[in-house]
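Students often ask why we bother encoding 3D structure as a string. The short answer is that it lets us treat folding as translation between two languages. Here is a chain of 376 residues written in the first language.
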Amino acid sequence: MSSQPQYCQPPRADYIVPVTSTPTTPSYQPSNGPANPNPPSHTSALEGKPSQLEHVRSALGLHPHPPVSDDHLQQEHHQLLWSQTRLALREFFAEFFGTFVMVMFGNGSVAQVLLSAGEASAPGGNGYGPYQSISWGWGIGVMLGVYVAGDSGGYLNPAITFTNCLFRRLPWRRFPIFFLAQFLGGFCAAGVVYANYIAAIDNLEGDGVRTVPPSKTATAGIFCTYPQQFLPRASMFFSEFIASTLLMFMIFALKDDSNLGAGKLFPLMLFFLIFGLGACFGFETGYALNLARDFGPRLMSYALGYGSQVWSAGGYYFWIPIVSPFCGCVFGGFLYDVFVYTGDDSVVNSEWFGNKRVREKALPVRKRAEDSFERV
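And here it is in the second language, the structure alphabet:
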């Protein structure tokens, strides 16, 4: 499963709004409104150190002003060193812990279902959860992760962040730090899940034994996805592509207030979206949908002793959950904007799909080149 197993929501109303959000209440993914070109200044509330804070945030690719209300900024503790650090890295921490919570619930649900299979002491005498428990875990993890990461936009997924940069004009300079936070959040969460279930893993596989599918006792699937053995490479890619396309298409739809939209129910609707994707598209490849939820935990499992097979399993399948979600999310966002969305903040609804700006910037350069050629 993933993010949306992304998931994005607009930041606070008193902050610059990511391009897919409305300047109102937080939600999982930014809504469909243009960014506020004139966010309020908090300089007066940060007396003494606004320039340094703004410089650090700008260097990180963030907006100079942190997404914090004026009432909070006026409190004296914001002059302390840690408070200043927290303000400088506020969106980084939000994306990190939002992704961390998402993966904790998601990987935790997989671990409980897998490691307790056949457990006679469970209610019903057959383990502590069917496959649908995993869909519940990922859906709840995404929903709660969005609440944690509200101030940053709650993207939780590099492919969704990328698509919002491409179609909703989220500043590209934010992509690197959001990507890093999301990756580290998934990586660290997988380590915590492993520490919690290490005794149960040893009980199933044997002390110090760690295997990957198709081993009958494999536990590597707790942390990242592995395809069914009968799938050809094209089917693996397409399974992740179609699920990622649906994910992004529906996120844009749920955040489109000019359509029906989900409003304040957006996080809850995300739960149903993730649950539905798992219930309908989880069998073949495990519906990763998210680099942060798959590659980060996969790297952690490699570091914890699962070996090089975490990369070679499934015919080196590991690259598909990295590439396919980007392709699918971009295609899903493109489909929604071309055929449904009418807002002017989408590049699809601008002349030449937004390329007019490139053309306008290129004209003076071309004119200077022509003038130089004529002089020669």
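Translate back mentally: The two ends are 61 Å apart (CA to CA). Keep this in mind for the problem set.
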